[in-house]
Amino acid sequence: MTAPDPGPDPEHHDAPAAPAPGADELSVRDRALLALERRPWPGPGAKERAIREELGISPVRYYQLLNALIEDERALREDPVTVNRLRRVRDARRGRR
C-alpha cells in the first residue's frame, strides 16, 4: 500500500506550473509552432524536414495546428508580427479562390 500524496511542497511554492488548458498562456507546442514559423527557410523541403524532426508531426498536421493557432488571441499577444503575417497570407489565398 502506498502513502497518500502529501500535497504541494511548501518549500517550492514559487515553482512555475505548466499552463492549464484555457489558461492565458500558450502551450510549449504552440510556442514551438510559432518559433518554427518565424525562421527563414533556405529552400524547398527544409521546413517540412524541420517540422518532422523538431516537432515530430507531419507537415499536414503542422498546418492544421498552425491555422487554428493563428485564430487564438493568446498567439496574437505572444507574437503579433508572425500571427498577423500568417493571417494576411491566409486571407490573400482565400481572396484568390
Key features of this structure:
97 residues, mainly alpha, 5 helices, globular, disordered N terminus, DUF3263
Classification by helices and strands: mainly alpha
Mean pLDDT: 83
Number of strands: 0
DSSP strand content: under 5%
Order of helices and strands: HHHHH
Describe the 3D structure:
The structure is a single chain. This protein has helices spanning 28-38, 46-55, 59-69, 73-78, 80-96. It has 97 residues and is mainly alpha-helical. α1 (28-38) packs antiparallel against α2. The radius of gyration is 18 Å and the shape is globular. The relative contact order is 0.11. The model is unreliable at 2-19 (pLDDT under 50). Residues 1-27 are annotated as: Disordered. Residues 16-25 have a biased composition (Low complexity). It comes from Streptomyces filamentosus.
Please sum up the structure shown.
The chain is an all-alpha fold. The chain is built from 5 helices and no strands. The model is unreliable at 2-19 (pLDDT under 50).
List the helices and strands and how they pair.
Blueprint (H helix, E strand, L loop, with lengths): L27 H11 L7 H10 L3 H11 L3 H6 L1 H17 L1
